[in-house]
From TrEMBL:
Subcellular location: Cell membrane
PANTHER family linked: OLFACTORY RECEPTOR (PTHR26453)
Annotated transmembrane regions: 26-48, 60-81, 101-120, 140-158, 200-221, 242-261, 273-292
Organism: Acinonyx jubatus (Cheetah)
Pfam family, one: 7tm_4
Gene: LOC106966639
Free-text function comment from the UniProt entry: Putative odorant or sperm cell receptor.
Keywords from the UniProt entry: Cell membrane, G-protein coupled receptor, Membrane, Olfaction, Receptor, Sensory transduction, Transducer, Transmembrane, Transmembrane helix
Origin organism lineage: Eukaryota, Metazoa, Chordata, Craniata, Vertebrata
Name this protein carries in UniProt: Olfactory receptor
């Protein structure tokens, strides 16, 4: 095993997830169930948003983008995690690590921007409802979604490429369950000040700036909601935003803990479980949160089930 700039590198060894080997199979079952629920829930959101004409709105367009993003993100990490939990060797090829690094970072960064875009959509819907359809026209929605995806691609091309240029000098044991920039930087046998500074700047751009934008949007939304005189109107306005706020708090809370907290202030096991949460649990929770707290989605699901029963009776 040699540094990443050598041509005959073969792969990495992903160290076991925790200090209790007997928990490996239990974690395998739990993560597999959560992964299947993630696939089912997010696929359902995408199909319902596409099939139900009532949901052909900017809000559900961005929600479909988020669901597709979560499907791709979990699929870039969880299959390899399941293999490593079951296989005692726990190896990942160099090519597999590179692909996982580029793809997962691109998708994670895209989600940071997309959640900020979704908060802007809620701001327009609550604060300027009469101009909502004019301002949030399909061309703008597509441009905002494209900007989110493009920003993720750009940051992974920069961060991942810089990280892979670091010499490892025989350090091939990754004390994590997947290939991430902070973990690979720790393997380097040279001064990584520049890489750490670049990672910190990227974290500010993709974490702090979107959160700041979201807080401003919801500050205006809160002012608009408080001006609504009827209790039912305030409840309806709050209901359209509460799902997004819950997703934002869960996603950004775990990401900030992982990327902005000093590495020496948390244990390795703690870092692994935090990464596991935003990799496995958060994508599974998103469709659950939006479904349980959104009457339109529940209505669309009910309509689809009734349509299936009707077709079954006719056949």
């Amino acid at each position: 095993m040699r540094s990443t700039n050598e041509s005959n590198i073969t792969g990495f060894i992903l160290l076991r997830f925790c200090d209790y080997p007997q928990l490996q199979k239990v974690l395998f079952v739990i993560i597999l169930i959560l992964y299947l629920l993630t696939i089912f829930g997010n696929t359902t959101i995408i199909l319902v948003s596409h099939l139900e004409s009532k949901l052909h709105t900017p809000m559900y367009f961005f929600l479909s983008q988020l669901s597709f993003l979560d499907l791709c993100f979990t699929s870039s990490v969880i299959p390899q995690l399941l293999v490593n939990l079951w296989d005692p060797m726990k190896n990942i090829t160099y090519g597999g690590c590179v692909v996982q690094l580029y793809v997962s970072l691109a998708l994670g960064s895209t989600e940071c921007v997309l959640l900020a875009v979704m908060s802007y959509d809620r701001y327009i819907a609550i604060c300027r409802p009469l101009h909502y359809t004019v301002l949030m026209h399909p061309r703008l929605c597509m441009a905002l979604a494209s900007l989110s995806w493009l920003s993720g691609v750009v940051t992974t091309l920069v961060q991942s490429t810089l990280t892979l240029q670091l010499p490892l000098c025989g350090h091939y044991q990754v004390d994590h369950f997947n290939c991430e920039v902070p973990v690979l930087i720790k393997l380097a046998c040279v001064d990584t000040t520049f890489n750490e500074a670049e990672l910190f700047v990227a974290s500010i751009i993709f974490l702090i700036v979107p959160i700041f934008f979201i807080l401003i949007s919801y500050g205006y939304i809160a002012q608009a909601v408080l001006k609504i005189k009827s209790a039912s109107g305030r409840k309806k306005a709050f209901g359209t935003c509460s799902s997004h706020m819950i997703v934002v708090i869960i996603f950004y809370g775990t990401i900030i803990f992982m990327y902005l907290q000093p590495a020496n202030s948390r244990s390795k096991e703690q870092g692994k479980f935090v990464s596991l949460f935003y990799t496995v649990v958060t994508p599974m929770l998103n469709p659950v949160i939006y479904t349980l707290r959104n009457k339109e989605v529940k209505w669309a699901l009910k309509k689809q089930r009734e349509g299936e029963r009707e077709r079954e009776r006719e056949s």
